[in-house]
Design goal:
The protein is α/β, with parallel strands linked by helices. It is 48% helix and 13% strand.
Amino acid sequence: MDGSGYSWAAKAGDVFHSYYEIPFYHLIVEFALVLFIIKILMSKSTGSPGDETPLTEKEMEKLIAEWTPEPLVPAGAADREPPVPIITSKVGKYVTVDGKECLNLATMNFLGMIGKEEIEDAAVASVQKYGVGSCGPRGFYGTIDVHLLLEEKLAKYMECEEAIIYSYGFATVASAIPAYSKRGDIIFCDKEVCYAIQKGILASRSTVFYYNHNDLDHLVELLEKQAAEDRKNPKKARVTNRFLVTEGLFVNTGQITNLPRLIELKQKYKFRIFLDESYSFGVLGECGRGLTEYYNVDRRNVDMIVGSMEFSLGSVGGFACGSSFVIRHQRLAGQGYVFSASLPPLHASMVIKAMDYFDKDLFAKLINNCKVAHEALEAIDTITVTADPLSPMKHIRLIENNSEEALREICNLARDNNLAITVASYTSTEIFKKEPSIRLTVNTELTEEEIRSSIKLIKEVVHQYTSPAQDVSEES
């Protein structure tokens, strides 16, 4: 072989040797690029979409006739919805449901404010003076003098520096949480919190850790884990805000949170407490101030208290109270405050008048009625009761066959016998699935005899449902 042949063979060998040294992934990328270039060249040669033969009118009509759109709602979804009871009266001590007058143990008129003549007169006078609505957010000609009077009255009553009111109870805590907690911050939260808190946490985009219901030992485990993570990255820990969000009185269980223990943990692990008192305001404490009064703890240990004016006060809207530094931030960052029309003046006037009824004897009567109801319910051997004895909300479940259908049928049987009770309702987007229950509520308008006779009737309709051959009227 001559020199030129040898040189060619050597060069070829060098080329193949270099290919062996190229990383395999590099060859794959190059091969993919070649295929991509070939595809582009071929697509250009096939012509543009405008070169396609247009469809005739007949062909288009045929395609349209054959097309079937996907349903917006799954088939049969409407048929699965239970019928909604229709109210045709005031929702007070008695309520007319589907044409039948019933004793009301279904709604959360805890202090009996609905139907009080002086409150109605205050609403009428407010409508005559201000009209029906405000038609503007608080920062844009929506602040009316009664709003300021109500905020001042709430702050003074709750013994806080400042209060802020919202036009919708649900939006209060759902707006307050994301006003402070942002992406990258950390929230510790009880698994049984209400849906409004869940939505507020979701809107905050914060990292959330849920602890088992009222299980503060589990909360400590989560706090310790986070403390260990903070020690690994102290720079990040210094700029991360930590919050604990919980309810004073849980609407989903009727149980009370252990606030003194939470305050101890706050001081040790350095987080802020947001306490939703929507269902404990006007219920717990000698003067109805809620959990802080019930446990006799300094309100300054709770960074923010949120409450509703839709239950004990019998109106619409919500409020938050705390230090001026905390509350004033919501006037700029609370979306439900900044972007929603302000609370209609008539509702603010109603709340101001309703708070004039606040009295130690009124709160004592509510607590007594709660205890009477709890004792009577616990004596029924076919049900379980979930609630604190002091809670005006009692969750009732059947020991056997505790399905939502069974509970609704029991409610229907009770309504047939002039007693209004209801199944607790939850959305399909709850973070944790809830066990079906009948939620019975107690108020100050009821007498002890009415409470006992109502619970006796519940016992009878439960027995009638489980033993349908026997009629309630026969047992009565």
